[in-house]
């Protein structure tokens, strides 16, 4: 199927799948790098020419799968604007980190049916550099001292019908934050910008 | 005729004789060849005979007679001869037969010999062939023999080698056998040693066993001693207990009285506690009220301050009325005034805006006018140039007119006239334009003032615009920062998440853990309090028991009850046993042994004459092994016995038994 995509170019559905796949692996990497779940619950897989770690915990995998499937649908309909990974302390419910993926969707792709010219390899290279950057951010992000849990927030258009099992939530800002922009990648239909915001260390 | 007949018979006998001889000759001449010569002789003989015959015939005739005579003789002789010849013939025949037989025999023999020869030849051939084959076989056999000989030689060599090896091996075997024998001898020695050791070991094990048996016995004796000591101590304890019990029993009525008193006090104290509880609640209520009142008071103070401020403000507002003179009494008037002012302001603003618009329009008009002026000026220049051109043309035409005389004069004049008209029109236009320019200049002069004011306003507006642009930039920066932080436009976006997300699950788990830990904490605190308080607070225990698991409490209660029951039973049993033992001792030994104080024992004899007669013994060692007699009134009466048994014989049992006997004898006598 991948060969077909390479020759045929990028369609709207193909782009939605690529972006949803990137989110799945990206979120797994974040959970592993930031130590939200113990490292022994992750296993290695090959993707984008890198060795990535994905979770083996069935509950967590099920949750990620649900979100990713829903994202695919909404990306196809071009009604999703942002995906945020919120990491907060379980004790104090204070938000410590925010990984924000802004999505710009070219709505004209819905109208014309012709696939866009961009090679799978180029997109993969871009995604690879983003994921490498995510891994590299560990060097400057502050340590997460207390036990943390994460939540996935999706910013959608106001008029979208809320599906079953989903509910509205607050944006969960960080009180005193420092933001760092990371690289972006584009499939010519969807463009994803990555930012990480973390709580500034209190002045010593 | 007889003669002829006789001749013929002679001739026939001659012929038969010749035939016989020829035959015989033929029979004899099997081997030799003289038979052929004999046949030729025969032929010659026959020829001769024929000749003779002829001669004979000739003679015969003549001799016939002789011959007949002779014949007769001859016949006789012939007969004789014939007989002899027959005999001879017979013998010859017999000889011939014999020789034929011999011939045949010889022939057969020859044949046999020939056959034998052939056979012998065949055999010889066969033998030769056999010989050849035997030779071949012999050769092969010889080769084989050679090979075998060579093999034999090799084998012999190997045999020698092997023999050497065998010899070596044998030597090795010999060595090893020697070693074996030496080792056997060693082994035997070791076995002997082993036997010795075994015997020693057996002896040692036996000794060990005996020692162990003795040790076990020792241990058992020690244990028995310990048991007995324990029993003794228990008995001492029990005796003490008995004493204490007696003392306690003595105290019993007092205790009952005290108990009654304590119950009364308890009831009183409970009432007091309840009252205390109620009072405490009242106090708490009152304290809370007090706090509230204090707060209210503080609030009152602040409110009074505010009130004063407000009064002051009101007064100032009222003074406003007086100061402004606008007939303001109530805030409604003020509001009305304000509204009116606002309306005026609005009107003014409208006016301002209209003025601004007019100013703009005027500016635009001015600009247009300026442009028109410029255009007019350019037109003017053009017109000027045109006029110059026209004047030049006019001059030329005039010249032409001068040159062209009367014939074209009218035309020329007309032309000149037309040109002049044009020139006049142009001049008129120019004048008009000049006048316009003047008016425009005038209007420009008029609107310059407006332009200045408008310029000022433009500068102000530009300053405002730059400020607004800066504000806009800063707001955009803030907005960007906020979007980075995650802000969104609520009218266009909403934030969704799954209800069952890891954060909420983690929080729930944390809450549940906390609740459980708090409950445990509470339980443990209650337990600690209860344990510190002591066991008499059974009511609280029960209350605590509600927090704890009821199973543990029930178990513990059961255990406690069972332990208490056991204790009681043991006490009863000990009491009965002690009493029994003491009675038995009394009846058997005749002495009642009482423990007066620690280590002091009082003995009263069954046969004592007086009630208070007793002996006092003191235990010098704690275990009660050695006893000393203490002085009593009774002991003074039995000094002789003491001297005899205790001082000399150093035996307390003897003393006691002697004393018993003595007292018994006294009793029976008395």
TrEMBL record, chain A:
Please name the Pfam families in this protein's record.
Answer: HORMA (PF02301)
One annotated Gene Ontology cellular component of this protein: nucleoplasm
Against Gene3D superfamilies, the record matches this protein to: HORMA domain
- Indicate the segments annotated as coiled coil, or none if absent: none
Q: Which GO terms describe its biological process?
A: cell division; establishment of centrosome localization; establishment of mitotic spindle orientation; mitotic sister chromatid segregation; mitotic spindle assembly checkpoint signaling; negative regulation of protein catabolic process; positive regulation of mitotic cell cycle spindle assembly checkpoint
Subcellular location as annotated: Nucleus
| Highest taxon, organism lineage | Eukaryota
**All residue ranges annotated as the HORMA domain in the record:** 13-196
InterPro entries from the entry?
Answer: HORMA_dom, HORMA_dom_sf, Mad2-like
- GO molecular function annotation: protein homodimerization activity
Q: What is its main location?
A: nucleus
* Keywords for this protein: Cell cycle, Cell division, Mitosis, Nucleus
* PROSITE patterns attached to this UniProt entry: HORMA
What family is this?
Belongs to the MAD2 family.
Q: What is this protein called?
A: Mitotic spindle assembly checkpoint protein MAD2A
Please tell me the species this chain comes from. Answer: Ficedula albicollis (Collared flycatcher)
Question: Gene that codes for this?
Answer: MAD2L1
TrEMBL record, chain B:
Describe the family membership recorded for this protein in Swiss-Prot or TrEMBL: Belongs to the MAD1 family.
Per the record, the gene is MAD1L1
**Any idea what this protein is called?**
Mitotic spindle assembly checkpoint protein MAD1
Entry GO terms, CC:
centrosome; kinetochore; MAD1 complex; mitotic spindle; mitotic spindle assembly checkpoint MAD1-MAD2 complex; nuclear envelope; spindle pole
The UniProt entry lists the main location of this chain as nucleus
- Role summary: Component of the spindle-assembly checkpoint that prevents the onset of anaphase until all chromosomes are properly aligned at the metaphase plate. Forms a heterotetrameric complex with the closed conformation form of MAD2L1 (C-MAD2) at unattached kinetochores during prometaphase, recruits an open conformation of MAD2L1 (O-MAD2) and promotes the conversion of O-MAD2 to C-MAD2, which ensures mitotic checkpoint signaling.
- Coiled-coil residues are 64-313, 352-580
What keywords are annotated for this sequence in UniProt? Answer: Acetylation, Cell cycle, Cell division, Centromere, Chromosome, Coiled coil, Cytoplasm, Cytoskeleton, Isopeptide bond, Kinetochore, Mitosis, Nucleus, Phosphoprotein, Ubl conjugation
Biological process, per Gene Ontology: attachment of mitotic spindle microtubules to kinetochore; cell division; mitotic spindle assembly checkpoint signaling
* Keyword Nucleotide-binding carried by entry: no
């Amino acid at each position: 199927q991948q060969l077909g995509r390479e020759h045929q170019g990028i369609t709207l559905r193909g782009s939605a799948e690529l972006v949803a796949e990137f989110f799945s692996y990206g979120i797994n990497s974040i959970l592993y790098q930031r130590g939200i779940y113990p490292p022994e619950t992750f296993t290695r897989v090959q993707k984008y020419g890198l060795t990535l770690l994905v979770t083996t915990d069935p509950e967590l995998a099920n949750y990620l799968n649900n979100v990713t499937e829903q994202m695919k649908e909404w990306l196809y309909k071009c009604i999703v604007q942002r995906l945020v990974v919120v990491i907060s302390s379980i004790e104090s419910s204070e938000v410590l980190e925010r990984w924000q993926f802004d999505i710009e969707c070219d709505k004209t792709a819905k109208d014309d049916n012709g696939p866009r010219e961009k090679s799978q390899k180029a997109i993969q290279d871009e995604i690879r550099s983003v994921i490498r950057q995510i891994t590299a951010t560990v060097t400057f992000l502050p340590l997460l001292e207390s036990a943390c849990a994460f939540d996935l927030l999706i910013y959608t258009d106001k008029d979208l019908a809320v599906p079953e099992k989903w509910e509205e939530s607050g944006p969960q800002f960080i009180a005193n934050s420092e933001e760092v922009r990371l690289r972006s990648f584009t499939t010519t239909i969807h463009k994803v910008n990555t930012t990480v915001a973390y709580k500034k260390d209190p002045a010593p | 005729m007889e003669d002829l007949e006789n001749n013929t018979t002679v001739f026939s006998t001659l012929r038969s004789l010749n035939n016989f001889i020829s035959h015989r000759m033929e029979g004899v001449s099997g081997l030799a060849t003289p038979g052929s010569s004999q046949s030729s002789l025969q032929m010659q003989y026959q020829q001769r005979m024929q000749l003779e015959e002829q001669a004979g015939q000739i003679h015969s005739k003549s001799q016939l007679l002789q011959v007949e005579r002779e014949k007769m003789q001859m016949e006789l002789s012939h007969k004789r001869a014939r007989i002899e010849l027959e005999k001879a013939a017979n013998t010859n025949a017999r000889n011939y037969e014999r020789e034929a037989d011999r011939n045949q025999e010889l022939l057969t023999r020859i044949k046999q010999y020939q056959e034998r020869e052939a056979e012998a030849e065949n055999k010889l051939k066969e033998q030769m062939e056999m010989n050849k084959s035997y030779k071949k076989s012999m050769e092969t056999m010889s080769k084989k023999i050679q090979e075998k000989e060579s093999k034999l030689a090799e084998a012999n060599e190997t045999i020698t080698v092997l023999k050497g090896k065998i010899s070596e091996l044998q030597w090795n075997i010999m060595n090893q056998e020697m070693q074996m024998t030496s080792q056997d001898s060693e082994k035997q020695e070791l076995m002997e040693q082993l036997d010795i050791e075994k015997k020693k070991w057996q002896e040692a094990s036996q000794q060990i066993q005996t020692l162990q048996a003795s040790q076990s016995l020792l241990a058992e004796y020690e244990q028995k001693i310990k048991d007995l000591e324990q029993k003794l101590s228990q008995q001492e304890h029990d005796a003490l207990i008995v004493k204490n019990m007696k003392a306690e029993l003595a105290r019993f009525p007092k205790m009952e009285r005290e108990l009654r008193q304590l119950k009364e006090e308890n009831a009183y104290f409970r009432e007091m506690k309840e009252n205390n509880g109620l009072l405490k609640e009242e106090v708490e209520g009152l304290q809370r009220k007090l706090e509230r009142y204090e707060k209210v008071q503080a609030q009152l103070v602040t409110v009074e301050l505010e009130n004063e401020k407000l009064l002051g403000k009101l007064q100032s507002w009222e003074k406003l009325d007086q100061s402004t003179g606008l007939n303001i009494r109530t805030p409604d008037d003020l509001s009305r005034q304000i509204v009116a002012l606002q309306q005026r302001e609005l009107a003014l603003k409208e006016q301002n805006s209209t003025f601004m618009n007019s100013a703009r329009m005027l500016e635009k008009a001015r600009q247009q006018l300026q442009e028109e002026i410029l255009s007019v000026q350019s037109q003017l220049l053009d017109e000027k140039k045109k006029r110059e051109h026209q004047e030049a043309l006019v001059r030329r035409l005039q010249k032409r007119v001068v040159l062209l005389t009367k014939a074209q004069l009218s035309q020329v004049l007309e032309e000149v006239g037309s040109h002049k008209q044009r020139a006049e029109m142009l001049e008129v236009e120019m004048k008009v334009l000049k006048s316009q320019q003047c008016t425009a200049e005038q209007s420009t002069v008029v609107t310059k003032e407006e332009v200045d004011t408008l310029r000022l306003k433009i500068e102000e507006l530009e300053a405002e615009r730059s400020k607004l642009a800066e504000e806009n930039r800063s707001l955009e920066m803030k907005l960007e920062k906020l979007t980075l932080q995650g802000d969104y436009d609520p009218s266009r976006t909403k934030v969704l998440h799954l209800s069952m997300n890891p954060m909420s699950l983690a929080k729930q788990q944390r809450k549940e853990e906390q609740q459980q830990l708090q409950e445990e904490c509470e339980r443990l605190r209650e337990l600690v309090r209860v344990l510190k308080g002591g066991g008499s607070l059974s009511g609280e225990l029960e209350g605590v028991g509600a927090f704890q698991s009821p199973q543990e409490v029930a178990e513990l209660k059961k255990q406690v009850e069972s332990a208490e029951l056991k204790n009681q039973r043991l006490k009863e049993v000990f009491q009965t046993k002690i009493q029994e033992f003491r009675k038995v001792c009394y009846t058997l030994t005749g002495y009642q042994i009482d423990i007066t104080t620690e280590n002091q024992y009082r003995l009263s004899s069954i046969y004592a004459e007086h009630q208070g007669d007793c002996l006092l013994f003191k235990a010098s060692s704690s275990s009660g092994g050695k006893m000393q007699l203490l002085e009593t009134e009774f002991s003074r009466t039995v000094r002789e016995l003491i001297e005899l048994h205790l001082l000399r014989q150093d035996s307390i049992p003897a003393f006691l038994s002697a004393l018993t006997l003595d007292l018994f004898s006294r009793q029976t006598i008395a």
